[in-house]
Amino acid sequence: MARARLIAPQELDRLIRDAAPLTVLDVRWRLDRPDGRADHEAGHVPGAVYVSLDDELAAHGAPEDGRHPLPEVADLQAAARRWGVDTGDTVVVYDDWQTFGAARAWWVLTDAGVSDVRVLDGGLQAWRDAGLALESGAVHAARGDVALTPGHLPRLDIDEAAALPGSGILFDVRAPERYRGDVEPMDPRAGHIPGAVNAPTGGNVDERGRFRSPDELRERYEALGVTAGTAVGVSCGSGVSAAQAAFALSLAGIDAALYGGSWSQWSNHPERPVATGDRP
Length: 280
Known about the structure:
The chain is of the alpha/beta class and 280 residues long.
């Protein structure tokens, strides 16, 4: 499995200045503001192309498919070429909210065979904190030539997610109150997949939004039950924040399969059981 990679703002700035074979993608997205285009145009890393998570890093299907089904590779390739991605490019992705959008882009592009996808550690705030300049306005890249192929990262379908707690660990990375079923602001039923272990994404980053060290991440997941040879999966609300967890696990040297449908798919299948409370 391809290892996750972080990049510091100063290193990204050097790559931009050196005119390296590079594509920078601005994947700003939030649950309450999914369209980040206006924020992008107000100020972004120089040369960064805006990517719509909802429209370009997800497909659109029936509710039974979940809110953010993984995109078909042909659609993703067309989008990546619009972003200017060429064969052999280093692709750097960033956002401004807990690395959720950037990690989704990292997962989708790595799964599609892009070999060098890096996440800007700390996102746009880290770039600002480093005193580096922003540019404004829309960015229109020259068309790229990248060719994508699917299936380079492990994933789970709904049946595999249901079975995994019996032989490995399925992490539900949503906030504890959603895992317990106290609240459910997005999906038709509250609770979690029976057997899933809660591991909120906030534990993967520090107070500045930067990823904890590989040793710290490994210790975290070992304390949650991961041992050598454990089959690991990650689930969330709709497959976005779970990609952040997959990235963090990869930094720790732990392979994790993404359940792309996540709770938004599971909860739309009334025949699937639901667990509530603190326990798996």
